[in-house]
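One such given next:

>
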Amino acid sequence: MKRVALFVLTNLAIIVMLGVVTSVLGVDRFLTAQGLNLPMLLGFAAVFGFGGAFFSLLISKPVAKFSTGARTIGQPANAMEAWLLDTVRHHAEKAGLAMPEVAIYEGEPNAFATGAFRNSALVAVSTGLLQTMSKEEVDAVLGHEVTHIANGDMVTMTLLQGVLNTFVIFLSRALAYVIDRMILRNENDGPGIGYFATSLVLNIVFGLLAGIIVAWFSRRREFRADAGSAQILGSPRPMISALQRLGGMEPGALPRQLNAFGITGGPGGLGQLFASHPPIEERIAALRAAAH
């Protein structure tokens, strides 16, 4: 609940900050004189910027189950399922969490954690991961995913995305309005075609910049989750072994909304600017450096 409260407070802080900055710089008076309703634009940016991100977070668990076909383990049907439940329970207790739901889904090696609340989360592993890794390596992967939950990474990523979405929506429309009036010399009462075209282009440009920021934070988050797994297991060796195993195989693809929360992700392009995960070699090096 603390992170949800932080989410709401951050939303309000962004609105206040944008309002204060535009007022101090005189931008609000200029845009208002030109016919733009700045308070309405701020409200619109916040509702759609944070609203979409928050809604995605709230439905993350059912969407994850549906999109991957994950089957939640209720009563374990075999020794492996019983071991998975016991291992996740041990890690959750060590991290001070309530027991997450545990699920298995068909697919190539990967695993993920999701959920809007720390004490009502989901940890899922693929059949490919269970078939190709030793128990010690799977244990490390589960520690990694439980650490994501303990660190509140799902909410933190949503907060960051919501903040950036708000800036993207606000700045793209405010700048498009200025360009439409001052450069394209639109003197009609309403915005012209130049406004809509410029707004679309700026939305894409700012959206790409926001994506780079989100990806950078996501990569920092992975280092912390690897370190958390090492702490839970008492040694970095199992996590290093799991990463080495992943480095020698093709990871299973996850739906876009879950990709950042998998144990590994695909290439991000543009020199890894958009990659949600660091290169495996860097993650292994960080674990070895911490051990020394």
